[in-house]
Amino acid sequence: MPMDRLDAMAAFAAAVEAGSLSGAAKRLGWSLASVSRQITSTEQRLKTRLLARTTRRLALTDEGKRYYDQIKHILADIAVAESSLRPSEHPQVPHGRLHVSAPSLIGRLRLAPLMADYLAEYPRVTLELTLLDRPPNLLEDQIDIAVVIGRLPDSALIRRGLGDVGMIVCGAPGYLDSRGTPARPQDLSTHHCLIFSTMPGPPRWSFQIAGRRTEVDVPVRLRSNSLDVVVSAALGGAGLVRAPSWLVKDHIAAGKLKPILEDFSRPATPLQMIFSDPRGLSRKVQSFADFLAARWGAGLRVSP
């Protein structure tokens, strides 16, 4: 492949990943004019527009996204081939900036406590953890690896499972002793329910009844937009809570909370890491994926 073609690919990929032509020029050590010229020549050669300039940043066209998805593998293969021959003081050591994203609550309560251990094990990696309560866009958000909950549509992303998240209805043993244990979801109508919700309106908890998802209205004793708050109230004996298994499993194991209505639980949801094609997987991304999978498997698995 001609060197000028590789330079053009590098300029385009850097512009996509940096979000601007000036950022690409800084990353590559080129002039802004050189980067702009390489991208323009590529669009002219391909006879299609790859980038759309907005007031804030560059945006990929559909053709540009397809082109980037292809060339990033080519550039990654070249980088791997060259790095394997380049003498280095630390030839196999993960290094550089690593951008990780995760949902807010699981990031604060499960990932954050692990960060010090990861940084100690990989001292040449600079870690950035972003907490997002929306589906991440690895390209636009410039994320290397994301922890996500839920089933994803088919895509080119690579997935690595961490476990499953189930929703568990539970309460403190003292509360259940005094108020009784519900035998059916409909029995919740006579109980104090601690509701996590960010939306107004009557609260409903979902169950699997006769093989079908069924929404059950529940009375409100406490409502909060924070799961921490309602779980804390349940631990204090204020009522029943419906919470993710990873959040309450330690309390259940310690006997502080007792699960109920388990025969009516909805199917669990996958918890997984996502990243791009492994042909371009850097050592730093691989190191974090291996680290997190090992730590989750060693005691943080989220299955109910």
Give a topology summary.
Layout: H1 3-18, H2 21-28, H3 32-46, E1 51-53, E2 58-60, H4 62-85, E3 96-102, H5 104-121, E4 125-131, E5 145-149, E6 158-165, E7 167-171, H6 173-179, E8 193-196, E9 204-209, E10 212-217, E11 220-224, H7 227-235, E12 240-244, H8 245-253, E13 258-260, E14 269-275, H9 283-300
Parallel strand pairs: 3-4, 3-5, 8-11, 8-12
Antiparallel strand pairs: 1-2, 5-14, 6-14, 7-12, 7-13, 9-10
Helix pairs in contact: 1-2, 1-3, 1-4, 2-3
- Please give the CATH class of the largest domain: Alpha Beta
CATH architecture verdict of the largest domain:
3-Layer(aba) Sandwich
From the 3D structure, determine the CATH topology of the largest domain: D-Maltodextrin-Binding Protein, domain 2
Strand content: 15-25%
Using only C-alpha atoms, the radius of gyration works out to 25 Å
Percentage of residues assigned to helices: 40-55%
Spatial strand arrangement across the major sheet = 4-3-5-14-6
Major sheet description: 5 strands, mixed
The secondary-structure class comes to alpha/beta
In round numbers, the mean pLDDT is 84
Whole-number count of domains: 3
The parts where pLDDT drops under 50 for at least 5 residues are 298-304
Measured between the Cα atoms of the first and last residue, the distance is 53 Å
Q: What is the number of strand segments?
A: 14
